[in-house]
Every structure is written in structure tokens, then in C-alpha cells.
């Protein structure tokens, strides 16, 4: 066999091996692979939901979604976006809505913006010694709505904080006694994966478990089946050893469990690291679990050389179980696993020494020891305490309102003080609207007259809006003669007052025919 792949060398005439820090993977065409991303990565979550439900994690990171949907930053960004959108709309309407006739839609939008001035209508610029009056301006409407948007956004963030963080998690430590420790009944699982090209056929299964301190009077050696159940499973990264204990109580002594991997023909015992996943849950409760997981390569901080584990010296993984009582979860009692230390065994960091070890049958072994320690002197009690009450929330809302109003009040005062044109913009806008309303009313009168007396007597070519006085009077005279007959009164001419038509200011419409006859006779 030609050992031509990367990171590979020939250990003898028929065997290929990988350089230190790499293992031969049969799943990927016999290539040499290193450790997974990261070195010693440890994560611990107390009283968390069962991790088996997170089946979408490879496709969609639920932690990222949770941070985006349950974050105050999202609410603040939405508030700022709405505020900037409103200010941009008002600025656009201000600079493009100039119309002396008041017919543009943007000018009408500016007018309705001024009608929204409900907060600063009495705080606009006023000359000295003038009576205070309400003024609804476009700048005041813009600042009023902007302050309300900011206030609503900040109140939303405050309510979110009051709901999500209305209490804090308090940890109290108390000394442990025997009845408290006996109340902890947990299901514990230890999964240790040896990252290598080995298989479970090379494993020498553990058969005994040691209890107590070696060399002391309380040291005991018991069969493994009295406390733990053992299982081995082949994975893509190597054999995984599982140790489980159902309904375990906290013992007063430490435990030691050891197992070995040995050489087989064409399958040497060599590893590049260990992956661990330790979980604990209360017996009968599958909703919450405490866990710690990670990857271990070698505990050597003096250099950055990659190493391969092989030899008689044992690799010791020290794990501590710490009792915790979650009062805020109905007195949930969990043992929190902690990875306290890792002591590396025999390792090789160069190809020559590793090749010599592969040729030596005395080094054909990997010893692994799981050291389980119980921190049973103290118990941590976890509870929640309220930090926000109704009075504090109301006080915070009042402060946010004053803050929002003060910001835009200063902005409006600065704008009106520096730009004199803004001081009387309400009167100019109202004057344009009055002129436009008067023009609309005059157009209505024209339409009414045209509809009532007909358009024949009006000059359609006249676009100025002014009617000739003679045509109007003729139209009125002809229409009244058609509709109503003149009424003659039985009075003598001597009793009638003498009138001069040139000095008359008002024409009696009911006696139009009689006045015309008298005027013609006088002229004759």
C-alpha cells in the first residue's frame, strides 16, 4: 500500500499511519483528519430544555433566532426607523410642497401635519408682551408626532424589559446535610468518545468501579454493574463509551472507572483527543437537563505541537457533580456536571517517536480513567426575586415621556429662534387656505348663477371671472319679467314721492315696468 496521502507515513511495509495530531479516517477514503473545530470547548446550561428537541440546529441556529426576536435592540431599531421615516417625510413635504394656491397634495399634507401639533401648540415663538395663544404649525406637528413615536418605542422596550427581566436569579449557598443530599435522585449519563480510527473491538470493557480514596480505609472495589451500565458504540469519529446510572443518589465517596484500547492486527491503538457529553436530569423529569460538553486534545500549554495519545500512562478526566436546587422550578433538584481537570497520559509529538511506538508492542494501549467527584459539602439554591413594581414602572414611563418631549422641544425652539421664517408659518399657511376657500366659494356662486339664469347671457370667452354689469342686469330684468308680472298699486300720482333715477341707489324690482314708462314720458 502506497502511503501517499497528506499527513501520512509508512510505519512498516504493510501499514500506513498518520502524523501526530491526525487520525486515519476510513469513512473518507482513508485520509488523515485532525480534531474538530476548537480545542477544549465547554458549555454549561443549568435547568435548560432537553437538547433533543433542537433538531433544526444544523439547518437554522435557534440561538440566533432567539437573540433577534427577544432583544431590546430590535425594538429600538424599529423605533429609530419609524422616527427617521417620519422626519424624512416631513422634510420632503416641506421642501417640495410650496404652493401659493394650496392645490398640491403635499401642501395639504403639510396642513394636516400642522393639525397634529398637540404637544407644542402653546410653546412656539412669540414676540415680547403678546398674549399667549395656541398655534398649530408644521414644525410643531412634526415634533409632536416624532416625540410620540419615540415615547411609544421607549415604553415598548420598557414593557419588554419588565416582562422578560422583572426578576433576577439569586444563588444562595447553604451547608449540606444528609437528608438534603439523599433528596437528590438523578439520572446521569457519561458519553466519552475517543477521537481515533479505532473501533469497539479494541476496547477492554470496564468491569469494576473503585470508590473512596486509594490507600485509605474506606477504599472499595465493586463490580461495575452495581452502580453503572456500560455500552460502546462505533461512530464516525471513533468508539463512544457510555456509562449510565438511573436513580443515582449522591454518595459520600469519589468513583473511578477505567478502560483500555489495545492494538489489533492492522489496527493500532492511537487517538488524537476526546469528546465528552455529560448530562444529568431529575429522575422522572424529562423537561430539564443539566449538561456539559466539549472536546479535549492535550493539556499542554507550553507549545503548540500536535500530539497523539498512546502508551501506558493513563489519561484522567476529572468530573465534579455539584448539587443545585431550583426553587423557581418547583424545587427541581439537579446535579450540575463540571469538567474540573484533564491529565494527559503518554503522548507523541514527532513522527519518529510515534513510528517507534507503533513498532513496540509494549506501547499498544490507551488507558482512560473517569474520575467522578461529588461536591457534597454545599448546596446551591436558585430562586427569582422581583426587581420591578408597578410604581417603578409608572415612574419610568413618566421619565420617558418627559425625555421624549424635552428632546424635540429643544429642537423646535432652536429652529424657530434661528430661522425667522418659521415664526409665522401658521399665519401664512392659513392665509393661503382662506384664499383658496374663498376662491372655491366664488366658483360655487358662479356655478349657481349660471345654473339659475342660464349661460346665454354670460360671456364664455371671459376667463378672468368678471362679469359685465350690463349683461347681468339685462339677465336679471328679462328673467324677472318672464317669471313675475309687475304689481300696480292704486295710488294717485300726486301722493307719489318725486324720485330722480340718477340718485337712486336701489332699484325696486317689483316696479321695473312702471319706472321705465315714467322715465320715457319725462324724456318726451
UniProtKB/TrEMBL annotation:
Transmembrane stretches, start-end? 73-95, 139-163, 393-413
Q: Where is the signal peptide?
A: none
Q: Does the keyword Ligase apply?
A: no
Segments carrying the region annotation (Disordered) are: 460-524
Q: Which domain of life is it from?
A: Eukaryota
Read off the PANTHER family from this record.
OS01G0100500 PROTEIN
Protein name as it appears in the record: Uncharacterized protein
Amino acid at each position: 500500500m502506497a502511503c501517499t496521502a497528506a499527513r501520512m507515513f509508512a510505519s512498516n511495509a504493510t501499514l500506513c499511519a498518520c502524523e501526530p495530531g491526525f487520525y486515519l479516517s476510513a469513512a473518507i477514503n482513508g485520509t488523515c483528519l485532525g480534531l474538530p473545530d476548537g480545542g477544549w470547548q465547554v458549555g454549561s446550561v443549568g435547568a435548560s430544555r432537553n437538547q433533543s428537541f433542537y433538531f433544526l440546529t444544523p439547518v437554522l441556529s435557534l440561538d440566533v433566532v432567539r437573540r433577534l426576536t427577544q432583544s431590546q435592540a430590535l425594538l429600538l431599531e424599529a423605533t429609530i426607523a419609524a422616527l427617521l421615516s417620519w422626519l424624512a417625510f416631513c422634510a420632503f413635504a416641506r421642501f417640495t410642497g410650496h404652493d401659493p394656491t394650496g392645490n398640491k397634495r403635499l401642501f395639504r399634507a403639510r396642513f394636516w401635519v400642522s393639525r397634529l401639533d398637540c404637544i407644542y401648540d402653546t410653546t412656539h415663538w412669540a414676540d415680547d408682551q403678546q398674549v399667549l395663544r395656541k398655534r398649530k404649525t408644521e414644525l410643531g406637528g412634526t415634533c409632536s408626532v416624532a416625540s410620540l413615536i419615540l415615547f411609544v418605542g421607549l415604553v415598548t422596550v420598557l414593557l419588554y424589559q419588565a416582562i422578560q427581566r422583572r426578576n433576577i436569579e439569586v444563588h444562595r449557598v447553604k451547608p449540606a446535610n444528609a437528608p438534603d443530599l439523599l433528596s437528590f435522585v438523578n439520572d446521569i449519563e457519561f458519553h466519552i468518545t475517543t477521537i481515533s480510527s479505532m473501533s469497539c473491538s479494541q476496547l477492554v470493557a470496564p468491569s469494576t468501579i473503585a470508590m473512596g480514596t486509594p490507600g485509605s480505609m474506606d477504599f472499595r472495589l465493586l463490580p461495575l454493574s452495581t452502580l453503572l451500565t456500560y455500552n460502546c458504540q462505533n461512530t464516525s469519529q471513533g468508539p463512544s463509551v457510555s456509562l449510565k446510572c438511573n436513580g443515582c443518589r449522591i454518595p459520600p465517596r469519589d468513583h473511578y472507572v477505567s478502560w483500555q484500547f489495545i492494538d489489533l492486527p492492522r489496527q493500532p491503538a492511537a487517538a488524537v483527543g476526546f469528546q465528552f457529553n455529560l448530562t444529568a436530569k431529575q429522575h422522572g423529569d424529562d423537561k430539564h437537563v443539566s449538561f456539559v460538553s466539549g472536546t479535549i486534545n492535550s493539556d499542554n500549554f507550553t507549545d503548540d505541537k500536535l500530539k497523539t495519545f498512546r502508551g501506558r500512562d493513563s489519561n484522567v478526566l476529572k468530573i465534579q457533580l455539584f448539587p443545585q436546587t431550583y426553587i423557581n422550578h418547583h424545587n427541581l433538584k439537579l446535579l450540575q456536571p463540571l469538567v474540573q481537570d484533564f491529565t494527559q497520559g503518554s503522548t507523541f509529538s514527532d513522527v519518529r517517536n510515534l513510528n517507534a511506538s507503533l513498532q513496540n508492542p509494549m506501547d499498544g494501549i490507551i488507558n482512560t480513567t473517569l474520575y467522578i467527584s461529588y461536591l457534597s459539602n454545599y448546596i446551591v439554591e436558585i430562586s427569582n426575586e422581583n426587581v420591578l413594581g408597578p410604581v417603578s414602572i409608572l415612574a419610568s414611563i413618566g421619565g420617558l415621556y418627559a425625555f421624549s418631549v424635552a428632546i424635540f422641544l429643544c429642537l423646535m425652539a432652536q429652529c424657530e429662534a434661528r430661522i425667522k421664517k418659521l415664526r409665522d408659518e401658521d399665519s401664512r399657511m392659513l392665509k393661503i387656505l382662506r384664499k383658496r376657500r374663498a376662491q372655491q366659494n366664488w366658483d360655487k356662486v358662479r356655478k349657481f348663477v349660471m345654473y339659475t339664469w342660464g349661460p346665454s347671457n354670460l360671456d364664455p370667452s371671459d376667463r378672468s371671472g368678471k362679469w359685465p354689469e350690463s349683461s347681468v342686469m339685462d339677465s336679471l330684468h328679462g328673467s324677472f319679467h318672464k317669471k313675475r308680472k309687475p304689481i300696480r298699486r292704486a295710488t294717485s300720482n300726486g301722493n307719489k314721492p318725486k324720485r330722480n333715477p340718477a340718485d337712486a341707489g336701489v332699484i325696486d324690482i317689483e316696479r321695473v315696468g312702471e319706472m321705465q314708462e315714467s322715465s320715457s314720458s319725462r324724456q318726451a
